[in-house]
Amino acid sequence: MQYIILDMEWNQPWPGSYSAKKALPSPMRGEIVQIGAVRMTQEQQVADEFQILIRPKYFKKMNRKVASLTGIRDSVLREKGVSFPEAAAKFQTWCGEACVFLTWGFDDITVLRENLAVFGLADGWTARWYNAQLIFNAQTDGSGAQKALSTAMQMMDIAPTRAAHDALGDAYHTALVCQRLRLAEGIAAYDAAVQAHENGFHGAELPGCVGRAVFHGYADKTAALGEMSGKENLCPVCGGQMTAGKWYTQQGRRYLTKAHCETDGDFYIRVRLVHEDEALRVSRLVYEPTEQVAKSYAAPAQIRPRQGQTGRTEKSVKNRPPQQLWRPVFYGSSGSKRSKMGMLPSASQASRSSFLRMVQLTSCAPQVRTQARRQ
Q1: At 268, is the secondary structure helix, strand, or coil?
Q2: What are the b/e assignments for 229-267, b being 16+ CB within 10 Å?
Q3: How far apart are CA 336 and CA 332, in angstroms?
Q4: 56-82: pLDDT as tens digits
Q5: Nearest-CA neighbor of 205 among 216, 196, 214, 215?
Q6: pTM tops 0.90, yes or no
């Protein structure tokens, strides 16, 4: 068995352009313009490399952002690019049989298969594929966040030696990261890593995770959080019912609360809500009260209203009658057609003296302009 570390660059039409509206034989999010790959032996040693430029058929004009990022220009593709069927055939021949594809992320293999479908080519030879990101996360910090390749290289003290956003350069750097992973072990445990990613657990996001569970079929956020505070809020140690406090919002549709078990003490509950089949799925993590998770909980809990606003909410201010917030004031030359009716804010809204000064300057302006015209 051999590993093929694959990276690609693809062009995308500018939104609203003719190419974006063009009907395609099948859906394709981007048309491949460069394939780069590195072969690694079963012993995880770099063997050889492959790269090829492709002349696009459907999205012929390079998107200027893609061109700026990759350095690939229309003139280069016209001069050195080949058709996609020719490039795919050469790449498949170079890969050989009994190979396993590794990519950094989910997109590359999907885009490759979409391009094969558009051109009516078989994709069975790409069947054995794994996302190296998930293996990296499982064998390093346990996180499920989709780390950039540069971040992974920094974590492993790998210095970049080739250009970024170049298909072969990125494939080579991915291979250097993969060399330091236990690939056979990661592939054997890959299904569990994918399931954890889909469930939204994202590994042990914070230290001290002692319980994980997934729940399905909630109508809305209120119902989901109510269940997580109620009958599903069980102690990870004794299994008894726990009480829960207020839920605090975090990034990525996550919510955090503090729970208490009469027997085993305090825990923190973190949930993530995801839409699934016209309902909500809840991924629930239970943490011991470590210092890090306690800080994460305390930060939003310590937010207090500003001085002088205690007991007042934005909603209560909005619902006040208009005369409580504003009162009318006339400005402009007295009796002239220029006189208008303005609204003077109350003292709690703005500085009255500053506003009156502005009124004085405004009312003088028409007279000055009139005198200038007379002269």
Answers
A1: strand
A2: beebbbbbeeeeebebeebbebeeebbbbbbebeeeeeb
A3: 8
A4: 999 999 999 999 999 999 999 999 999
A5: 196
A6: no
